[in-house]
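Z., the sequence and structure:
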Amino acid sequence: GINAEYGQIVSAIQPTGEPHLGNYLGALKQWVSLQDQHQNCIFGIADNHVFTSKTTAKQVRHNTLSQVAVLLALGLDPERVILYKHSAVLQHTALAWLLSTAATSGLMTRLRSLPQYKEKSQVHDNL
């Protein structure tokens, strides 16, 4: 999201496979241009989120490194932005656990109506 008051950009992408045109047009192209427009950009690789689909740790590692290589090749400058991997920030995992323990059944029912949940539940039997 964008915090207009501070000019801060925070965005992340899941390393679900090899980067493709949709990734480029949907986010990556904008990330490169945003680093020129804002002083405080934080971009992440949401590798923990990939485990909601059927994948292996080896695939996630490969896809994460591939995603980072593409970001650097497109011109994302690690001297000007923060580029991080979700799983490297232990507080991210701890916060997710705390939030999951506080989720009520009513909230879970509402979350199941989100398009992301509906899309993944159609593909995977275990959601």
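Strands lie at 2-3, 8-13, 40-45, 82-85. Helices lie at 21-37, 57-74, 90-102, 105-111, 115-123.

Let me know what you think.
H.
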